Amino acid sequence: MTKSIEAMWKEGFINEAHLSAPKINDLYNRKSQNIVDKLRNMFAINIKAIMVGSLIMFIVMSLIGAPFLGLYICCLLVPLIIIAKKELKKSVDLSKGQSSYDYIMSFNNWLQSSIKVYSGYYKIFYPMFFLGMATQAIVSKAGAKLIALLVEALPTSIIIFGQPYYILVALALLTLIVARYAESLYRLDLNIVYGRQFKKLDELIIDMEELRK
Fold first, then answer.
1. Taking residues 179-196, what's their average pLDDT?
2. What total number of domains does the chain contain?
3. Residue 101's domain spans which residues?
4. Distance (Å, rounded) from C-alpha 171 to C-alpha 79?
5. 123-137 burial by CB neighbour count: b if 16+ within 10 A, else e?
6. pTM to 2 decimal places
7. How far apart, in whole angstroms, are the C-alpha atoms of residue 48 and residue 45?
8. Tens of pLDDT along 139-178?
């Protein structure tokens, strides 16, 4: 019976050091390269989506009378785009002149390092994004009406920056909470977008490590 591609790939990996059949060698090399290329393409598309999304965000915010919020969000996204491009270039620069196992492990090490870099920025991005949205809500007409109702229900003589103190205290506490869970929010978002591919990568590494024993 003809061998399946999976069986040929495993056989090729086991005999990598003594492999003489280029076609079999290509099978397991291609499997690792495919998952890497898939993730790289997704990362590249995500960068373009952020760039287009920031422009759309600015236009929409301008149309609804909040151009400064739109500009503020764009400014927050610029460092993210710069980081994303630098990190993607690092993955492209990984040497392919090594075994498929070493290559996939190098890519995985880069991926984990890249996630840490992103996590560091998202700890700043999420609370700043929340703060910008909350500030816009407070200064909006609807926000002003809501605050007026709160002042009637909870009158106070302590006014800071034109707002009752408890509004600013609540805003500060919520911002701290967002900052506290910023990394978790990022990893949740990461899993939603890339979770399936990350799982395939993990499974591929496990298979390779099992075959090397």
1. 92
2. 1
3. 5-212
4. 25
5. bebbbbbbbbebebb
6. 0.79
7. 5
8. 888 888 888 888 888 888 888 888 888 889 999 999 999 9
